[in-house]
Amino acid sequence: MNRHERRAAARKSEAKPGGRDAATPAALHEAGLGHRRAGRPLDAQLCCQQALAIDAAHADSQHLMGLLSFDAGQYDHAVQWIARALKQDVRPEYLFSLGTALKQQGRRDEAVLAFQHVLGLEPGHCDAAHECGALLYERGRLSDALGYLEPCLELRPNHVPTLVMCTACLLSLRKFEQAVAVNQRAHALDPGNAEPCNSVGVALQLLGRQEDALPWFDRAIGLKPDFVDALNNKAVALSGIHRFEEACAAYERVEAVDPGNVGAEWNLALLHLLMGNFEAGWAGREAHWKTDRQSTYPKFSQPRWFGEGNIEGNTILVCADEGLGDTIQFARYVPEIAARGARVILAVEESARALLSGLPGVAQCVRKSVDGLPAFDMHCPMSGLPMLFGTRLDTIPSEVPYLPAPPAHLTRAWQDRLGRRDKLRVGLVWSGNPQHGNDHNRSIPLQMLLPILDSDATFVSLQKNPRPDDRAVLEARRDVIDRTAHLTDFVETAALIRCLDLVITVDTSVAHLAAALGQPTWILLPYTPDYRWLLDRDDSPWYPTVRLFRQGKTREYTSVLERMRGELQRLISVRQAG
């Protein structure tokens, strides 16, 4: 008897009245389902065994055995039983169960395929669509995930878990307005759930609407007083509107609720540094060594040097551990280590190696890695140097230039590329790495700089890898010299900067490079800047040739650029008059 005949016989037997119905595989399966629903797994298993003794290929009973194995946490057995059922009959419910079991095994790609197969058979299967979306979100396939979640919401608009997952995708895709709308729906449907309140706040925060975000974080905390994420987010929002004392109090509350919370320690440290409280700030920044935040820092067997003891005759490896801007900023401390009698090996990213090889006190500059390093006695991360030297506002080693001058032949080559120097030469950088967490606040489109470009100066692009819209603007402007194809590393960039009179830049590594070379540098800053630029000042204690142009409470750059344009015009007038 083949499987179709068996299924026909089973249907026929189910139609028969009388006591024999209870002994059919179908009836035993139904009884097994009842036992499972009632929490009697052993009775359910016995029914399945009896059904399979009658018909070893009874698909529903095989599937139920898979479900019982799943309930018991025996996911390998669950997959095996459900796979047997699928050999008999490919049904959406079997495939969905298979996907669920595969997911529990960590076999995410196979689970996605199973759920996609469900949808191929039953396009309106919302649970499968939700699972597909959730798994694809985990894999970072955000647009694909939304492709499953949004149709699911059309069929099931009030399903809170799908609304929440859809919000997570929208936030990651930086579709903040949509995220707010979707999450507000989730909150309306489940007003006692703190998670949607927090997510609405996060989306508003990312839109720059910190004041609007605060009530949502308060709502989340009211529903769940120990909600650490909401407390942290509230502190960030308070910092963003310069309510710093309240922000500190919020971080301290996080630490009271969750002692040792690294995120709160880290953010509180940055807040202390921003406010000029360096002693607490440098110490607090050490929190990042408790997490995988420093996963890019090599794991050395040698001990870390904390500034203690006599180091004369020792070899110390100073290793870059943050961005290129930080590397340049903190390189100023390296000669002080050598002055204590140590031999210093500097390990940095390849693009900065040639630049820093000539730094005073550096015996050897190598590419940052774990393997192939020269022998050394101790290591020290570059970001730890300010704390190690007890840096306060009034003790910052601020003499510039502290970077070595680029080779003369490179500078001459750039002079030749730029041509006659009959006007003020101004270098321009308008955007940083788009992957930077605060890039949406610090970078600007080139289009915004056009009013400045009308000034009577020679403008030179220092912008590597301009974004598509910016490249189109740049190509249309014949009054901006673009020779960035020759900028192969920081030495080349330094040589070009030495040929300029002024650098105008957003907060990027080029700002640090120009300032460390002692060149006049004007930096555009968002309302709440990175900690190193401090607050309420237009100069920098780190770099004496820097001028800071800050956003005001309106958080827009138009008025800032108008002010900068006026200052540039004055500078040009002074040059022309001289």
Question: Would you mind describing this structure in some detail?
Answer:
The protein has 578 residues and is α/β, with parallel strands linked by helices. Among the domains are: 89 residues, Tetratricopeptide repeat domain (Serine Threonine Protein Phosphatase 5, Tetratricopeptide repeat), CATH 1.25.40.10; 81 residues, 3-Layer(aba) Sandwich (Rossmann fold); 170 residues, 3-Layer(aba) Sandwich (Rossmann fold). Helices cover 54% and strands 8% of the residues. It contains 28 helices and ten strands. It has a six-stranded parallel β-sheet, sandwiched between helices. A four-stranded parallel β-sheet has the order 3-2-1-4. The longest helix is centred in the C-terminal third of the chain and has 20 residues. It is elongated, with a radius of gyration of 32 Å. It starts with a helix and ends with a helix. The N terminus is likely disordered.
What's the arrangement of secondary structure elements?
Elements: H1 3-15, H2 25-37, H3 41-54, H4 59-71, H5 75-88, H6 92-104, H7 108-121, H8 126-138, H9 142-155, H10 160-172, H11 176-189, H12 194-206, H13 210-223, H14 228-240, H15 244-257, H16 262-274, H17 278-285, E1 315-319, H18 324-330, H19 334-339, E2 343-348, H20 350-357, E3 362-367, E4 378-381, H21 385-388, H22 408-418, E5 425-429, H23 439-442, H24 450-453, E6 458-461, H25 468-476, E7 480-481, H26 490-497, E8 502-506, H27 509-516, E9 521-525, E10 546-550, H28 558-577
Parallel strand pairs: 1-2, 1-4, 2-3, 5-6, 5-8, 6-7, 8-9, 9-10
